[in-house]
Structures are given as structure tokens and as C-alpha cells.
Write a structure and sequence with these properties.
Shape: elongated
Number of strands: 0
Helix content: 55-70%
Order of helices and strands: HHHHH
Largest sheet: none
Structural class: mainly alpha
């Protein structure tokens, strides 16, 4: 079995992690949460639109006479700058999130390997009528609902 990751998270480490996350959230009190409907309702500034938006804001700086009077130029520039900076923050935090996901996935791979090895051992022990093995096997085999236990068929009596 491959043991690529071997670590332990203590209660203190978990408490510190939660405090660190709360400290980050407190440092940026203007962070918001959108509803699913709000996420769908806006005009998104995604990868395909970055060049367009960047050029537009450059033109707003050099040719502000075309900016509609109902738009606050200072607030518009603040929004674009915020978007740009948050995207840099996301890239950094995504690296951490990816590492957390990858480490959790690898730990899960390793944990499941052990669970399957134990399950197969109990299954074999149950076939051999080892004490208590059948009870454990019956409980664990619910993970594999599509697989029925092979019925033991007795040869027909003559």
C-alpha cells in the first residue's frame, strides 16, 4: 500500500486554522455572499471579457467624456480595481484550496485502501466461519448494494 501522506491534525491545529480563517474574513469585512439567483443575474466579467474590460477602463481614463453621466467614475474604477485584486487573491487562495483538496483526496485513497483490505479480510473470514466475522461482513457489505452474496447451492439429493 502506498502511504504518500502521513500527518495528523491536532485539536489545537484545527482551532488555529479556524482562527486564521476567521482573521482573514475579519480583515476584509466587505466580502459578501451572493444568493444563487444573484450569481446568475449579473453580467459576468470572466476570462473572455478581461481584455474588453481592461481596454474599456483604459479608455475611461483617457477619454472620460464618453462615460455616461449617471456612472460614478471613481466608484467604477474602484470596482474594477477590486475585481482585479480579488482575482489575484483567488489565485493564491486556490493554490491552498487545491493543496487541501489534493491532500484530503490522497488521505481518502489511503484510508479506503485500508478499509477495502479489511473488508476483504473479513469477507474471507466470514466464508471460513470465523467467530464474529459474518456480523461485521453483513454490516460492511451494505456499501456494495448491487452485489449479492453468492448463494451456496447444495447438490441435489438423489
Amino acid at each position: 500500500m502506498n502511504n504518500k501522506v502521513s500527518a495528523e491534525i491536532t485539536d489545537l491545529m484545527m482551532a488555529d486554522f479556524k482562527k486564521d480563517i476567521e482573521a482573514i474574513k475579519a480583515k476584509y469585512p466587505w466580502l459578501i455572499s451572493l444568493t444563487p439567483e444573484e450569481r446568475l443575474s449579473g453580467t459576468h466579467l470572466g476570462e473572455k471579457s478581461i481584455s474588453f474590460a481592461t481596454k474599456t477602463y483604459d479608455y475611461i481614463g483617457t477619454n472620460p467624456e464618453y462615460l455616461p453621466s449617471y456612472i460614478n467614475k471613481v466608484e467604477a474604477n474602484r470596482d474594477f480595481s477590486l475585481w482585479s485584486n480579488i482575482n489575484q487573491m483567488l489565485r493564491v487562495s486556490n493554490i491552498l484550496t487545491d493543496s487541501l483538496n489534493d491532500t484530503a483526496m490522497q488521505a481518502g485513497f489511503e484510508a479506503m485502501e485500508v478499509a477495502l483490505a479489511y473488508y476483504n479480510s473479513v469477507k474471507e473470514a466470514a466464508k471460513r466461519n470465523a467467530p464474529g466475522a459474518q456480523t461485521i461482513y453483513e454490516d460492511l457489505r451494505t456499501r456494495f448494494p448491487g452485489q449479492k452474496a453468492k448463494a451456496t447451492t447444495k447438490p441435489p439429493t438423489k
